[in-house]
Write a structure and sequence with these properties.
This protein is α+β, with helices and mostly antiparallel strands. The protein folds into 2 domains: about 100 residues, 2-Layer Sandwich (Translation Initiation Factor IF3), CATH 3.30.110.170; about 100 residues, 2-Layer Sandwich (Alpha-Beta Plaits). This is Secreted protein.
């Protein structure tokens, strides 16, 4: 019985000690002279991966060209302008190469969808012109992205922390004090604004009657980071 009572007393004592220890740690943090600052940095980046959708479809006519022949023409035209079709051209739906559309009871119209990735707007224009010249005009913009976005976010966080220290130094040096080590850092946000200019770019390319592709500039995407840092004041 005594043993049981001692165990209960020890457990209760531990419960009472936990908030005391926590309060002591909090007090130690608050009692230190510190400066708190927020900083934000951002940058504009041109997308370097542009995705175009291409749909090959048999025409509804007696002399229609098969999807297989259209695919061969597409591959030949893309290779002529320097596109590596093994690396840059892929089926849009890998689970099914063909989709069948039943027109009458006996007629089947086949189609096949692809995604083409290019690395700048000029090559996108060249691809569109080449495909249109081969009679392939069902082309759409599917998206654009920055390939090294993860690395860029890390770089932006580092810049935000350095800027926070510069801000802290600017505030304490007039007082004859110096910035000490960071005692708290919070990553508030690392934002990426998705690319929104694709439809406009496609419209500009489609309106051009020139035999040469036009280099329509892509809208840049915004990448930003924000941090909150507490520095000791010495």
């Amino acid at each position: 019985m005594k043993k049981h009572l001692l165990s209960m007393a020890f457990a209760l004592g531990a419960l009472f000690l936990i908030p005391v220890t926590g309060n002591a740690q909090e007090k130690n943090f608050i009692d230190q002279p510190y400066l708190e600052t927020n900083s934000r940095v951002d940058t504009l980046v041109v997308p370097d991966r542009i995705y175009l959708g291409i749909v090959l479809q048999e025409s509804d006519s007696k002399g229609r060209t098969s999807v297989e022949k259209l695919e061969q023409k597409m591959a030949a035209e893309l290779q002529k302008i320097g596109i590596d079709i093994k690396e840059q051209l892929m089926l849009a739906d890998l689970s099914s190469n063909f989709k069948d559309y039943f027109l009458r009871s006996t007629d089947v119209q086949k189609s096949k969808a692809f995604t083409l990735v290019v690395y700048d707007a000029l090559m996108a224009g060249k691809a569109i012109k080449a495909l249109e010249g081969a009679g392939i005009s069902n082309i759409s913009f599917r998206g654009a992205e920055v390939s090294n976005l993860a690395d860029l976010k890390v770089t932006m966080r580092s810049k935000a922390v350095r800027k926070a220290k510069e801000q802290a130094r600017a505030m304490v040096e007039p007082l004859g004090q110096t910035v000490g080590k960071a005692i708290y850092i919070s990553d508030l946000s690392t934002e990426y604004t998705p690319y929104q200019g694709g439809p406009r770019m496609m419209m500009e390319m489609a309106k051009s009657d020139s035999s040469e592709p036009i280099d329509v500039p892509f809208n840049k995407v915004n990448v930003q980071a924000m941090v909150n840092v507490k520095f000791m004041i010495q």
